[in-house]
């Protein structure tokens, strides 16, 4: 599984790289803080597979990187090879900006 650090992701976003973000946290978590992208809670991922492209980089994120790791593992078994986990999730992202 591919990982990306918050610093590396910030650099990609700042350079307008063609990367899709998917926040897999629950609604209430996203309302508190997010960095954009699609919002598809972890439990709803199977119903939204057509929205997840296989032909570009897709970064999944959650609060600590655990749920996104599990989700990526499940999606990889369904044929996805382009998924990247935000290492440390939003917790690490917030620490980067402190």
What does this entry look like structurally?
The model has no long low-confidence stretch (mean pLDDT about 95). The chain is built from four helices and five strands, in the order E-H-E-H-E-E-H-E-H. The chain has one domain (about 1-95): Oxidized Rhodanese, domain 1 (3-Layer(aba) Sandwich), CATH 3.40.250.10. The protein has helices at about 5-15, 25-30, 65-75, 90-95; strands at about 1-5, 20-25, 40, 55-60, 85. It has about 100 residues and is an alpha/beta fold.
Topology at a glance:
Elements: E1 2-4, H1 6-14, E2 19-23, H2 27-32, E3 38-39, E4 57-61, H3 66-76, E5 83-86, H4 89-96
Parallel strand pairs: 1-5, 2-3, 2-4, 4-5
Summarize the structure.
With 98 residues, this protein is α/β, with parallel strands linked by helices. The protein has helices at residues 6-14, 27-32, 66-76, 89-96; strands at 2-4, 19-23, 38-39, 57-61, 83-86.
Sheet of most strands: 5 strands, parallel
What string gives the helices and strands in order? EHEHEEHEH
Give average pLDDT, whole number.
Answer: 96
What is the number of E strands?
5
Question: Top keywords for this entry?
Answer:
Oxidized Rhodanese, domain 1, 4 helices, about 100 residues, five-stranded parallel sheet, alpha/beta, globular
